[in-house]
Write a structure and sequence with these properties.
Rossmann fold; single chain; alpha/beta; eight-stranded mixed β-sheet; four-stranded mixed β-sheet; 25% helix; 204 residues
């Protein structure tokens, strides 16, 4: 069944309108909100993000969103998809600002350690799917658009859905119970991105 109540969490960072447009394009009801009641009533959540990790955590605190998000995700087991910085915020901590994250996934966010390759990692790249999951259903050539200087390092390999190579293999998609994350930008990834968002809407 396709979800009809997706809330794109507004905490002041992220491609909110681009995501909303993609959901509207595939006929899925979604709203942008930082309202506690609307988040409480959501069947699924999207945590987008572009920018600095420490600023993201600061904004979540300033918007007083962490308590309601913890309740929805940890207690009610509401499916949530973190995108780019949103995925990194799911981790325990980040080298970007040396601050603690939401801690929903046993992982840390680290800066790329590269010799000779430009940072940020920017542009189209292929992902290697490590285990089957609804997120990548019917995506035959899994190429997506990336823009990031940091990446997630999982303690538990079972949380890794996909990896991507940029100088070395890094985690580009995760899943732990009801918590999903992708390092790339589905809203910038054309038909593959649209398909992934539709797949997330169908998560039970």
């Amino acid at each position: 069944m396709t979800c009809e109540n997706i809330v794109i969490v507004d905490y002041g960072l992220g491609n909110l309108m681009s995501l909303l447009y993609k959901f509207k394009k595939i006929g899925i009801n979604a709203i942008i909100s930082s309202n506690e009641k609307e988040i409480e009533n959501a069947e699924k959540l999207i945590l987008p993000g572009v920018g600095h990790f420490a600023k993201g955590i600061e904004n979540l605190k300033n918007y007083n969103l962490i308590p309601v998000l913890n309740k929805k995700v940890l207690e009610e087991k509401t499916p949530i998809l973190g995108i780019c910085l949103g995925m990194q915020l799911l981790t325990k901590r980040s080298e970007e600002g040396n601050v603690e994250g939401l801690g929903w996934v046993d992982a840390e966010t680290k800066r790329f350690d590269l010799n000779g390759l430009k940072i940020p990692h920017m542009g189209w790249n292929t992902i290697e799917i490590k285990r089957g999951n609804i997120l990548f259903k019917n995506i035959e050539t899994p190429r997506f658009y990336f823009v990031h200087s940091y990446h997630v390092c999982c303690e538990d390999e079972n949380d890794i859905l996909a990896t991507t190579n940029y100088g070395y293999d890094f985690t580009s998609a995760i899943k732990k119970d009801n918590v999903y994350g992708v390092q790339f930008h589905p809203e910038k990834s054309h038909k593959n991105g649209i398909k992934l968002l539709k797949n997330f809407a169908e998560v039970v």
